[in-house]
């Protein structure tokens, strides 16, 4: 049985295990910056890491990151950005992705958000089909992405 919940202080290792599946080329941090950032996320209103926990196996099987952003337009209703959607690669296609996305979007609606957005770098048609099945539309907005110049990037 899986449980949808907000991440807690003991979930960092499980989340990082999933993130390594999302971005396998990212370096493993050993300077404590991941722990410090995790604490900031957990302590900041409007930022929520969600997880699906397989209670039988006592491990995390999926995660999302919901950012609820205050806004002055749209009658001062916030909007949401969903990031870092990951389902354990061994369990993809089993419905866990839809389950964690449904919980994440419900949390956005419960926070009064008038919209939720996400970006994907994937060109895999099944990824796009997944997001459409979760209620996202690829034709509602145009997304642009800026990155710092190489000299300023870490």
UniProtKB/TrEMBL annotation:
Entry-linked SUPFAM superfamilies: Acyl-CoA N-acyltransferases (Nat) (SSF55729)
Enzyme Commission code: 2.3.1.-
Keywords from the UniProt entry: Acyltransferase, Transferase
GO terms of molecular function: N-acetyltransferase activity
Origin: domain of life: Bacteria
InterPro entries listed in its UniProt record: Acyl_CoA_acyltransferase (IPR016181), GNAT_dom (IPR000182), GNPNAT1-like (IPR039143)
N-acetyltransferase domain: residues covered: 2-154
Pfam families on file: Acetyltransf_1
Name of this chain's protein: GNAT family N-acetyltransferase
């Amino acid at each position: 049985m899986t449980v949808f919940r907000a991440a807690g202080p003991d979930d960092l290792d499980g989340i990082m295990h999933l993130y390594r599946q999302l971005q396998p080329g990212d370096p493993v941090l050993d300077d404590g910056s991941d722990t410090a950032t995790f604490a900031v996320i957990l302590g900041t209103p409007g930022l929520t890491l969600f997880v699906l926990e397989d209670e039988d196996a006592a491990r995390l099987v999926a995660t999302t990151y919901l950012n609820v952003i205050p806004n002055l337009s749209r009658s001062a209703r916030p909007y949401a950005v969903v990031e870092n959607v990951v389902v354990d690669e061994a369990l993809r296609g089993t419905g866990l992705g839809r389950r964690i996305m449904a919980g994440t979007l419900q949390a956005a609606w419960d926070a009064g958000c008038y919209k939720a957005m996400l970006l994907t770098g994937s060109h895999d048609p099944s990824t796009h089909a997944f997001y459409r099945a979760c209620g996202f539309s690829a034709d509602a907005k145009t997304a642009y992405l800026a990155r710092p110049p190489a000299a300023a990037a870490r």
